[in-house]
Design a protein that fits this description.
The chain has 537 residues and is an alpha/beta fold. It folds into two domains: 294 residues, no CATH class; 226 residues, Vaccinia Virus protein VP39 (Rossmann fold, 3-Layer(aba) Sandwich). The chain is 56% helix and 9% strand. It is built from 19 helices and seven strands. A seven-stranded mixed sheet has the order 3-2-1-4-5-7-6.
Length: 537
């Protein structure tokens, strides 16, 4: 019943948007504006759609970033679907329907409502700030600057009221304190400008599509002014207000109504129209997911879910390259020959690839993993494995001579779980035993962005909820002595096989250069002290 009501509501919102748009065209005498659109340049229409896609993509990244700052972890793929579904909310007064984003995330993942509402309100404030900055910088007269200042203040006051409502109703907890951090706000402002500055060129591209010219500065000013004006009026999607404000400003700089109306109609269709259309599609998809089994709550459940597709995430030549490189690095700090290294623990062995390769090189290794789905594949391949929780290893103290964890620890729920796993590994190691850790190196901001916001959408291995471990943390480990840290790999996982030799030569040079701390991965080597009391100073 609830699904049927939501479906009816979504259809009603779309029909309302169409009706209001048609009424606006009729009342402004712009019914004839539709005819010129049929002759719009396909190239510039594609550019308009591309710019809108970039705009929505940056806004999604900003949403995920602010959620992470508030310590709300929502998997990236479903979060993107929810974000796109919430675009339907732009067809509601003051965009209040975007609260749907919070409701869906709470229903699917149990995400806390208060912090999410706080993030949503902060997003609107950042939007106002970005549009206000763009409009003020591009204003050519004092009158325009005053208009922009007034609209920005008016929109900010409305959002301020929303903040008060959120505090009273949702009682956001202390996790929102991180959002007031200057660094977080600076990144949020930068993302907002990166989202709205390209979008503000849509008036220019619409004019170009219809064979008209418009200075880019005027496009930025008109878009920001009209968008803020539509926000202040609280009209759904700014219908009837944003467009009218844009038409008025185009006429103010010399465009006739016959030219201005098609330009505005085109840029509104390719921005708000595209957003509503995408929102409707994903809203329907989200409605269909209601009632389906809940999303995985733990890393083990996640890997059970993707067990059948896990080894197809990379091309075979990439798997082979990564396996050979990582196992060679694991072996490098261990005693030689392999028989002298003793018994090893593959912590989080997954499909058993490292475990099998280590045994092929003469090492005795046992693998453990909480994902029974992955372990079934490992057993079929011949790996000796045990289903076990990494925080409660089923082995006596001092069982192993060495242990390694390859891309595992960042999947644990938080830093305290990571510390507990290290204590447990230290417990089952013999004195003098070594732990080799391979982790993703996120010191490189570009790679951190890729791993946090792009990779989880492209691949199912990571979810975008991971807790990354900075390399320096291993030097302060209380249970094990830090020995060394090495940095390796710069190549993306999409290099075609024929190009590998050339790129590998370049990669080796980078790994020896001063840029090596910004490599994709790192290996930390630690040792269990011989004396009681933990690591030495």
């Amino acid at each position: 019943m609830a699904t049927r009501r939501l479906s009816s509501l979504s259809i009603g919102l779309v029909l309302l948007g169409v009706a209001v748009s048609c009424a606006w065209l009729f009342l402004t005498g712009g019914a004839g504006a539709v005819r010129p659109l049929l002759h719009a340049s396909p190239l510039f229409v594609v550019i308009l759609l591309g710019v809108t896609t970039v705009h929505l993509g940056v806004r999604f990244v900003r949403w995920q970033y602010l959620l992470r700052r508030a310590d709300v972890r929502v998997p990236a793929r479903p979060s993107l679907s929810i974000f796109l579904a919430s675009l339907m909310g732009t067809a509601t007064p003051a965009y209040v329907g975007e609260v749907l984003r919070c409701a869906l995330a709470r229903k699917r993942f149990g995400a806390p409502l208060g912090p999410m509402l706080g993030v949503l309100v902060l997003e609107r404030l950042l939007d106002v700030l970005a549009l206000g900055l763009i409009g003020t910088l591009c204003a050519s007269t004092l009158t325009h600057r005053l208009w922009m200042a007034g609209l920005s203040v008016g929109a900010a006051l409305l959002i301020g009221i929303a903040v008060a409502v959120v505090r009273r109703v949702a009682h956001p907890d202390g996790r929102l304190a991180e959002l007031r951090n200057p660094g977080s706000l600076f990144v949020g402002i930068g993302m907002s400008l990166a989202a709205w500055a390209p979008a503000a060129t849509c008036v220019l591209w619409s004019a170009q599509a219809l064979g008209k010219s418009l200075p880019v500065v005027e496009s930025l000013r008109i878009f920001s002014h009209a968008t803020l004006f539509g926000a202040v009026t609280l009209m759904p999607a700014g219908l009837g207000t944003t467009g009218s404000a844009a038409v008025f400003q185009l006429q103010e700089i010399g465009f006739s109504a016959a030219d201005a109306l098609p330009i505005v109609a085109l840029f509104r269709l390719t921005t708000t129209g595209l957003a509503l259309s995408v929102g409707f599609v994903f809203f329907v998809l989200e409605l269909r997911s209601i009632g389906k089994p809940a999303a995985p709550a733990t890393a083990a459940e996640h890997f059970d879910e993707i067990a059948m597709q896990y080894q197809h995430e990379y091309a075979p030549h990439v798997w082979k390259l990564l396996l050979d490189r990582k196992v060679s690095l694991i072996c490098s700090p261990l005693p030689t020959p392999p028989a002298a290294a003793g018994l090893g623990l593959d912590f989080g062995c997954g499909l058993g690839h490292q475990c099998l390769e280590m045994r092929a090189r003469g090492y005795e290794v046992i693998g453990i993993d909480p994902s029974r789905g992955l372990l079934r594949n490992a057993k079929r391949a011949g790996a000796p494995v045990v289903a076990a929780d990494g925080l409660r290893l089923p082995f006596p103290d001092g069982t192993f001579d060495f242990a390694y964890a390859v891309g595992v620890l960042h999947h644990l729920p938080d830093a305290s779980a990571q510390a507990a796993a290290c204590r447990e590994i230290a417990r089952v190691l013999k004195p003098g035993g070594r732990l080799v850790v391979h982790e993703t190196n996120t010191r490189n901001p570009l790679f951190r962005f890729y791993m946090g916001y792009v990779f989880p959408v492209l691949k199912t291995i990571d979810e975008g909820t991971e807790h990354w471990i900075e390399p320096m943390r291993w030097e302060r480990n209380p249970d094990l002595e830090w020995v060394e840290t090495r940095y390796f790999t710069f190549l993306p996982d999409t290099i075609p096989r024929p190009l590998l030799p050339t790129f590998l030569a370049l990669e080796r040079r980078l790994e020896r250069s001063s840029l090596r701390p910004y490599a994709v991965h790192y290996m930390a080597v630690l040792r269990k002290p011989h004396r009681p009391g933990g690591a030495s100073s």
